[in-house]
Automatic annotation (TrEMBL):
Keywords: DNA-binding, Sigma factor, Sporulation, Transcription, Transcription regulation
Gene Ontology molecular-function annotations: DNA binding; sigma factor activity
Family in the record: Belongs to the sigma-70 factor family.
A matching Pfam family: Sigma70_r3
Organism field: [Clostridium] asparagiforme DSM 15981
Protein name: RNA polymerase sigma factor
Taxonomic lineage from the root: Bacteria, Bacillati, Bacillota, Clostridia, Lachnospirales
RNA polymerase sigma-70 domain mapped to chain residues: 46-59, 207-233
Gene3D superfamilies named in the record: 1.20.120.1810, Winged helix-like DNA-binding domain superfamily/Winged helix DNA-binding domain
PROSITE patterns registered for this protein in UniProt: SIGMA70_1, SIGMA70_2
Protein's job: Sigma factors are initiation factors that promote the attachment of RNA polymerase to specific initiation sites and are then released.
GO biological process: DNA-templated transcription initiation; sporulation resulting in formation of a cellular spore
Length: 239
């Protein structure tokens, strides 16, 4: 088994050493992504810390049955975390000191949640960061409005919609309608078995392993079928 996969499996079992090693092994990957956002008015070290959070989320959520390299999965997670920070940070202007403390609190909160297996208290975060409870509360409150805009509003999967998605959708109803029409046409062109796989994967958010178990085939077969079907759908769309 690939050494990275072994470390991920150990990390999923609660091995902090394995998790830390994965972070160290991917420092170069984080920096390569951070450099893409240079010149945005933010310290590179700050963006590196945000990117590290994205990497840790990738470690925690990576499915070892995926037929992709971990780095391939981690890149969009790291990039997304940085983009989300830049987007959210621009919505409410707060003092630099509060902003820097908020970043430290966010990192400490992520790390402690993993280590403790639960959400840490304000007192625990304050002790970890080395500031008062009031300062921690103030830094968290400063980002409360932004957080509420991106709070999930339905479902339990990672791709669920948030309030901001709904607001954006209202401004793009025409485009969304066209997309739905194209998607409906592409799905209708598939055979029943092919359509079931795509619907399960992208509408019901099932893993390849779950689909394989339900259909009585191997995960490898599901993966190959999915790739072939998507390739065919893209070809039909482009034509």
């Amino acid at each position: 088994m690939d050494e990275t996969l072994k470390l991920i499996l150990r990390a999923h079992e609660g091995d902090k050493t394995a998790r830390d090693q994965l972070v160290m092994d991917n420092v170069g990957l984080i920096w390569s992504i951070v450099r893409r956002f240079a010149g945005r008015g933010y310290e590179m070290e700050d963006l590196f810390q945000i990117g590290s959070i994205g990497l840790m989320k990738a470690i925690d959520k990576f499915d070892t049955t995926f037929e992709v390299k971990f780095s391939t999965y981690a890149v969009p997670m790291i990039t997304g975390e940085i983009k989300r920070f830049l987007r959210d940070d621009g919505m409410i202007k707060v003092s630099r000191s509060i902003k820097e403390l908020g970043l430290k609190v966010k990192c400490a909160r992520e790390e402690m949640t993993y280590e403790l297996g639960r959400e840490p208290t304000i007192e625990e975060i304050a002790g970890s960061v080395g500031v008062s409870r009031e300062e921690v509360a103030a830094s968290m409150e400063a980002g409360a409005e932004v957080e509420s805009l991106y709070r999930p509003v339905g479902g339990s999967d990672d791709n669920q919609l948030c309030l901001m998605d709904r607001l954006e959708e209202e401004n793009n109803e025409h485009e969304a309608l066209i997309n739905r029409m194209v998607l409906k046409e592409l799905l209708s062109s598939l055979e029943e078995g092919e359509r079931e796989i795509i619907v399960r994967r992208y509408f019901h958010n099932q893993t390849q392993t779950q689909i394989a178990q339900d259909l009585g085939i191997s995960q490898v077969q599901v993966s190959r079928l999915e790739k072939r079907i998507l390739k065919a759908m893209r070809k039909r769309f482009e034509s």
